[in-house]
């Protein structure tokens, strides 16, 4: 028996909440691995998920996640860090994955068919392996807060059902003002807030281009601030 399994059984016997299991395994359309790295105490009660990139032509968030991987979260918090949900698009420098699907229009909540193009939502909801892997990850770890990093608008975006306190806190620390975008269909944050009751998912739009070191440090501090209830 592995140590993690034994610990989960012990926690169950004493009535404590079970630990989230390890990250689910997954691969992109072209077979590249999809990974989430846990940083911090696995017994920490509060879980924060950070996704560095969903669109291959928006690489700035990967600098933030790389910095987070070199740091420790506050006491009582564990981070789950996904550097890149769309590695095939990153290689191509395209918004879409290798099937030409915009992953942030492919999630089941409010999904709707649309013509092929830059924002094509796919043939059906959750048609893409990257989408399905992200859904498994969210359901497995049940994060209290999730930051979906995008570019290039330079704003903090409350998704439908977002906890406004988390959104405002992140905006204050990062320096990116709270602004709304249209209520797009099939988004990751919208789906997450639908399936998890805490409303912890929201979008952060970094400015265009490569984030400076100062910018990265501000976003690391903003992520750390989400460790508070």
Structural description of this entry:
By secondary structure, the chain is α/β, with parallel strands linked by helices. The chain has one domain: Aminopeptidase (3-Layer(aba) Sandwich), CATH 3.40.630.10. It is built from 7 helices and 8 strands; from the N terminus they run αββββαβααββααβα. The protein has helices spanning 3-13, 60-69, 87-92, 129-141, 164-174, 188-195, 213-225; strands spanning 26-27, 33-34, 37-40, 46-51, 77-82, 145-150, 153-157, 201-207. The strands form 2 sheets. The chain has a 6-stranded mixed beta sheet, sandwiched between helices. Strands 1-2 form a two-stranded antiparallel ribbon. α5 (164-174) packs antiparallel against α7. The N and C termini lie far apart (35 Å).
């Amino acid at each position: 028996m592995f140590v993690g399994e034994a610990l989960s059984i012990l926690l169950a016997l004493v009535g404590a909440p079970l630990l989230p299991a390890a990250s689910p395994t997954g691969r992109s359309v072209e077979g590249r691995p999809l990974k989430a790295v846990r940083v911090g105490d696995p017994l920490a009660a509060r879980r924060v998920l950070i996704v560095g990139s969903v669109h291959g032509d928006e690489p700035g968030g990967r600098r933030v996640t790389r910095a987070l991987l070199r740091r420790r979260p506050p006491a009582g918090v564990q981070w789950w860090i996904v550097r890149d949900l769309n590695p095939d698009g990153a290689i191509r420098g395209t918004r879409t994955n290798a099937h030409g699907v915009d992953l942030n229009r492919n999630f089941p909540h409010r999904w709707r068919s649309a013509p092929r193009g830059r924002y094509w939502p796919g043939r059906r909801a959750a048609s893409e392996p990257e989408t399905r892997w992200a859904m498994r990850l969210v359901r497995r770890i049940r994060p209290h807060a999730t930051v979906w990093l995008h570019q290039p608008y330079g704003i903090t975006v409350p998704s439908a059902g977002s906890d406004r306190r988390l959104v405002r806190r992140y905006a204050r620390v990062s320096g990116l003002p709270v602004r709304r975008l249209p209520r797009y269909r099939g988004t990751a944050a919208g789906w997450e807030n639908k399936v998890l009751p805490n409303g912890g998912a929201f979008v952060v739009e970094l400015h265009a281009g490569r984030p400076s070191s100062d910018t990265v440090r501000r976003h690391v501090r903003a992520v750390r601030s989400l460790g508070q209830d």
